[in-house]
Amino acid sequence: MYLKGKEALIIDDLPGMRGSMRATLSSLGIESCDQTGTAREAVEKMRAKFYDLVVCDYYLGDATDGQQILEMVRRNRIISHKTLFIIVTAERTQDRVVSAADFLPDDYLVKPFTADTLGKRALSLLEKREYFQDVYAALDDDKHGLAINRLEPLCANKNKYWIDAVRLMGGSLVQMERYADAISVFEEILKLKEIPWAVMGKVKGLKGLGKVAEARQLLSALLQQHTEYLAGYDMMATLCAEAGDTAEAQKQVEKALAVVPAMHRQKRAGKLALESGDIDKAQQYLSEVVERGKYSFFKDPEDYTLLSHIHMEKGDTEQARSVLDMVGKRFAATPEIKAKVQVLKAISWQKEGKPEQAKALLEPLLANPDDLPESVRMDLAKACFLAGDDEVAAKLLSGMMQNNHDNTALKEEAIKMLESVGMGDRAKELVGDAIQEVIALNNSGALLLRDGQLEEAARLLVEAAEKLPRNAAIVLNAAYALLLNLQKNGVTGEDLARLDRYIDMVAQSPNPPKGLPKVQAMRQQLKAGGGA
Asked: Could you tell me the pTM of the whole model?
C-alpha cells in the first residue's frame, strides 16, 4: 500500500472520473480522500486543510483549468510546499503546456494510466518531499535565508536531488535579492544543459542587477528555441512594459495566447492595449474575458471596470454603465467594489454632460475619501477634475502620491490620469513636487539619525507618520527612530504605544517594507531588556 495514511484531494468536474480516481487512490492505501468538481470549492478545501496529495484534472469545464488552480494556490501560498500537486492531462500536447508554465506541478500524468503508475510516481515524490522537508518548512514560513542555509549542504551533495536543490537555492537567492549569487547558481546548471527554468532564473538575476538589455537578449534566444515557453513570454512582456514599450509587451503576451488562450493573459493583453491606445483591441480582449469568466471562479470585478473604461473612451457611456451594473449581479457588494462602481458611473454621467447625476454619486465618497483604497481614490480624483473641482482633486492626488512616494507604477498612473483630463502640464506640480516633499522629509530624518539627534529625528518622523499614515516606509522609519530614541533616553508609555501602533500599521500594509523584520526584532529586544 504505497500511500497509506496520506490525505488526498481529487479535483475533477466529472463525477464519474472523481469516483474512478477515488477507487484508484483507495487501492493505493489512501483512506481519507476529499473530492470536488469546482475550482472555488477546491481552493476553499485547500485553505482549510493540509493535503499530502492533490490530483487535479487539467480541464474543469468552467473556463478554469488545473494549471490556473495550481498557479493561484502556489502564488498565494494557500498550500504548503510539502503538498504534492499532480495534474492529469488527456493529451500529450497539454503536458507541454503544463511544463512551460511558471508554476510547475510536481508531476503530470497522461490518461490512461494504471494505479501502479500513479502509486510509484507519488511514492517517488514523497521520498523527495522527505529529503527537502526542512527546506520546505523554511519556505512555508517565507524564511529564504534559512532555506539557503539548509540548501547549502544539499547542493554540495550531487545525488539524484541535486538539480532540485540548485533550483530551490537559485529561487531563494533571487527572493533575497542576492542576484549575482543567483546567476552563479543557475549558470552551474547551464554549463551542463540548457534548461528553460535555469535560463529564466538567470534572466531574473540580470533583471535584478539592472542588466535589462542582456536579460532580454538571453530570453529572446531562449524563446527562439522553446516557442511554447509561456513563462518566458510573460517575463519578456514584463521587461518590455517596464521599458515603456507597451506595444511590444502586448505582442509578447499575444504569443503566449497563441499557445494557450488563458483568461489572465487575455486580460493582460487588454490592459496593455488600453495603455498603448489600441482601444478596439482592448475591447476585444476584455469583452472575451468578461464573457469567458461569467461562470469562472477566476472572474474579477476589475475585468468589468476596465471594460467600462473602454466603453467610456469610445463614447458609449450607456454601455459603460450597463457593464458596471453586471458587477453588482456577479460579485459580493464589498465597500471597495461599491465605491469603484459609484465613481465610474459618476465619470460616465460627467462625460454624458449630466453633472447633477455625477454629483449625487460623488458627494458621499468625498465625505470620507481617506477610507477608500488607492485605486478608487485615483478615479475619484479624475472625477473631481472632470467636474471642475480642481482643488479637491489636487488634494486627493497629492495625498496619494505622498503616501506612496516610492510607487513608480502609481506615479505613472497619476500622470496618465492627468493627461486624460487635459492637465498633463500640472504633473510636476501635483505629482513630482508632492513626492519630492516626502523624500526631503525622509532624508532630513535620516540625517538627524546619522548625526545622533535621536529625539529630534523621532519628533520629525512621528509628525510625518501622523500626516501620512498610509506611507509604510515613513511609518516604519518613524518606528525605527522611536526605538533608537527609547533605547538611549528611556521608555515612556506614550511612545511605546505609538511604536507598537506603527509596527502593526506597517505589518498590515499591502507591501510591508523589507526593513520591518529588523524593527520587529529590535522591539522584541527592547521588551526582553525590560521595556514594556
From this structure: 0.82
